[in-house]
């Protein structure tokens, strides 16, 4: 059984062409439609229609540039694990809504295990990271505990 979000077609609804389009775009989101069509073996008009349908279904969430954080003046990255003090839906949903808007937050992961969330954070310095944790997480009444792990190196996977 495949678990999926309510706004996304089950993976079984994607055919081989859809999966090929997704794989190519995951490797190069700036690939022109004509090149994409050629790589997956369909006509450009078919490729454009399928890509549009994949965006509308939620299979493609968006396109972005992968930028070196140091170029933005944020060379320090960390994963901040957060344990919430309560686990009812209102507390969980409110924390998620707040955390994605915090300065320096790149991604927010709701996880299983001892911690409830992991925040991928970028900061200008160790002092700025400490201030982020103290000013935004330690003072949040929903947060029971945090643990920060520095990221020494990041490599992007192919999948």
Automatic annotation (TrEMBL):
Keyword Iron-sulfur: no
Claim: DNA-binding is one of the keywords in the record: yes
Domain HTH asnC-type: residue ranges: 14-75
InterPro entries: ArsR-like_HTH (IPR011991), AsnC-type_HTH_dom (IPR000485), Dimeric_a/b-barrel (IPR011008), Tscrpt_reg_AsnC-like (IPR019888), Tscrpt_reg_AsnC/Lrp_C (IPR019887), WH-like_DNA-bd_sf (IPR036388), WH_DNA-bd_sf (IPR036390)
CDD domains, A to Z: HTH_ARSR (cd00090)
Keywords: DNA-binding, Transcription, Transcription regulation
One Pfam family hit: HTH_AsnC-type
Highest taxon above the source species: Bacteria
Protein name as it appears in the record: Lrp/AsnC family transcriptional regulator
